[in-house]
Amino acid sequence: xxxxxxxxxxxNLIYNNTGHGIRFANGTLTITGNTLYGNGLDQIRxxxxxELTISNNIVVNGVKSGIEVSNGGINISTYNLVWGNATGNxxxxxxxxxxxxxxxxxxxxxxxxxLLGGVNGADDRFQLGTSPASPAFDSGSAAATTxxxxxxxxxxxxxxxxxxxxxxxxxxxxxxNLGFHYAATLPSxxx
Length: 191
Known about the structure:
By secondary structure, the chain is an all-beta fold. It is built from no helices and 16 strands. The strands form 5 sheets. A 4-stranded parallel sheet has the order 1-4-7-10, with no helix packed on it. A 4-stranded parallel sheet has the order 2-5-8-11, with no helix packed on it. It has a 4-stranded parallel sheet with strand order 3-6-9-12, with no helix packed on it.
């Protein structure tokens, strides 16, 4: 995304790009509930003008900055896990409420073949690990049921965990887990 007027980027897995993960030029943009991993330039690049709100994301292992913004825009970062980015995690803006920097304990981003993305990307696993437990569990800004999609579902109808426990359920906790959420896997029915 390079230009935006009142847009939302929600629940995406953005990884292994040679350029920026998300680049925003102007307007108003909300980036929420995404996982950005190993992109070639800044993972999130903010504006010199406009308004950027970044929340409930996992932004890790970038070749350059995790979140970098220019002077002049209104830029807000809250409830993000930003870690291990080569030239800094937050550049041009301070960590906000709920922001932290720890290894998110993703299961296996480059998969069994140890190749990130591309034609071999089917085995890349960005779910949150459970043993030890990921610090991204229940670290979001509100309950999982409050994050709605256009189809009427919520984050509570999806999972970010390797064990497929739905976000916001009793064994997970009510607060939204950070980052991208996969569609729930339905159990198979015996015939």
